Amino acid sequence: MLLIRLLRFLRGTVTFEVKGKFSERFLNLLSRNGIPVFCTCYQQDGFTAQTLVKRYFLIRPFVRKTHVKVRVTERKGLPFLIKKYSKRIGLLLGVFVFLLGVYLSGEFVWEIQINGNQTISDDEVLQSLEEQGLTRGSWKRSLDVSKIAMNLRHQYHQIGWAAVNLVGSIAQVEINERIEGNEVLEDKTPCNIVASRGGQIVSMEVYDGQKVVKKGDVVKKGEMIVSGIVKGSTGKAVIRHARAKVMAEYPESCQIKIPLSQTLQVPVGGMRNYRYLKIGSVHIPMFIAGEKPEKYFERTFKRPIKLCGITLPFDMIIHQVIPAQSESVKISKEKAEEFAEKQLNEYEVKQPDRKVVSRKIKKQVTRDSLIVNAEYIFCSDIANQEEILFNGSSGLK
Q: Structure pTM?
């Protein structure tokens, strides 16, 4: 029934009133001659009925034949709406553009969701996706999501698995990060334990395999610590998957130089904002071009565009330029020591799996700089699994 009403609306209908002695005969003649009549309603002196607008003009011969009076009481449907608003072409064009925009909006990416990343920031992933053409406002049919996911895995070694799924207007990026550290071989793979770096062994916990060195020995990088070849109960050699935790201490040195006189760029005011409308990969400038100062600071912000609380697939890029000038600044010894201490702390936590055993610091002040020399003793696990390879002649390699 709903489909019939829709078809009648698209074709247009006319409601007419019939009066006269032969009004029933008039309606019968219309039906016999293929003129559709529907929604017929009996009245005291006649009938009201409906027909299609194109068929209404075919009833005149039957009006003359039956001597009835016919009067149009109502017109409905799309043809009459078009005629009514034909002089308002802008309104019709606006409705058409709106409907077209709603239809095409599903063909573009409106939002990017990133899930599963822990060591890699969202900004890094978004930057990589943008370099591959996936941004808010990208046309979905132009994206090769399998290739994008594969490039993500190649670009970041932390990513063990990645997938890009297009769900409606949302691009969902699923990331599964691998556990950082030395590559761990499968439990059944024959292997030795070798030193990942040189140092003096302070403790050993051997879970499987045969010790080659002992606590207090000094080893070099790549030297075997635990052998995967052990003697079995029958006296024959058995190849095992060696596992161990070997803590060793090793020295490292670090030198930091802090200039006591530096030339810095100092802001002088007069900030300018350059705005760009970003649609996909296209940046449309929203300003009148002007010359930039010779020296300046710059910052870039990205803000999504919202309409009635709905985030649109466009961004406003704000490029902020702050004029600057060069000034010579002197730094006190105390301030330079603060800078040096901050850099030393950053150096110490550069590798989170090691701990500081001792630290000796020597400071030297010259005419133009502060030089800090630090001697460290670090302690970390140097056990690294190395697969035992076989060859055809000797059996081991």
A: 0.46
